[in-house]
Automatic annotation (TrEMBL):
Keywords: DNA-binding, Metal-binding, Nucleus, Transcription, Transcription regulation, Zinc. InterPro entries: Metabolite_Synth_Reg. It comes from Aspergillus homomorphus (strain CBS 101889). This is Transcription factor domain-containing protein. One of its GO terms (molecular function) is DNA-binding transcription factor activity. GO terms for biological process: response to xenobiotic stimulus. It comes from the Eukaryota.
Length: 266
């Protein structure tokens, strides 16, 4: 196939490529593939239903809308993960899966969009966003895992701001860590890969070490076991590197604790 005259099949192919690279490839390769996907969507005019014509006229309108509305959040999440810019097509319509998605499912997309690095949110707004995301009623495992990942990202923003989070926020975070770890392990066991099955547990692991409380550290062994199980299931270089990084962080934390104890002993 040539990209000289792309069609819906090209878009589907690149969307699948993005999903595959997000799970197995490097961040740069994944981000560049997602950018290509968004450029293809604009070239095929999937972002503007009114401009669809020619060979696309016989395609299902629902399929066209679904492709665009799935690709946009994926590209957004990848761009935020990599700290890179997003591709925004001119005249892009609003997310239009309202008939297929529940309000809470749509809220996951909107709450994620609020984490745009160029958008400033006050600590109080971040805390409210975290609690709102945690309370969403979601059924699909992938969305629940995304909810966990989103709230962990929000917490990182809060931590950078220097704000002391409330007990309610801490409790919700630990609950989501438990839920996210269970979902990630279940998806891996069922051989149903989703890109957050590695990222969410690893980010949870990092956040637990950063919180550094008795309550958070009690969850560290469980999350580490989840990462080990996922690594044993898929055995990819990217996942093995993630697990190795987790062990390195754990050793650093242990060494710091030991040094603190030594200071107290003198």
């Amino acid at each position: 196939m040539t990209l000289g005259s792309p069609n819906v099949d090209h878009v589907i192919g690149w969307l699948l490529r993005v999903l595959y690279l997000r799970f197995t490839g490097t961040p740069n390769a994944t981000w560049m593939a997602s950018c290509t996907l968004m450029h293809l969507i604009e070239t095929v005019n999937l972002h503007q239903v009114s401009r669809l014509s020619g060979s696309l006229a016989n395609e299902s309108i629902h399929l066209k809308q679904h492709l665009c509305c799935v690709a946009r959040p994926f590209h957004m999440w990848i761009s935020y993960d990599c700290g890179r810019s997003r591709v925004e097509s001119r005249g892009t319509r609003e997310l239009s899966l309202n008939e297929a998605w529940t309000p809470d499912e749509l809220a996951i997309w909107h709450n994620s969009n609020s984490l745009d690095p160029t958008r400033h949110l006050e600590p109080t707004g971040l805390e409210a966003l975290l609690l709102h995301t945690a309370e969403l009623q979601l059924v699909h495992s992938a969305l629940r895992l995304k909810r966990c990942n989103t709230d962990l990202c929000i917490y990182r923003r809060l931590r950078v701001s220097g704000r002391m989070v409330s007990r309610d926020v801490s409790d919700q975070l630990l609950r989501l860590v438990d839920e996210g770890s269970e979902i990630a392990l279940d998806l891996a066991t069922r051989r149903s890969p989703w890109w957050h099955i590695v990222k969410a547990p690893f980010q949870a692991f990092c956040v637990l070490l950063a919180i550094d409380s008795r309550a958070s550290l009690e969850w560290v062994p469980k999350v580490l076991r989840v990462l080990q199980s996922i690594a044993e299931t898929y055995k990819t270089d990217a996942i093995n590197e993630t697990l190795a990084n987790a062990y390195t962080l754990l050793r650093i934390q242990h060494q710091r604790k030991k040094e603190d104890y030594d200071h107290l002993s003198h």
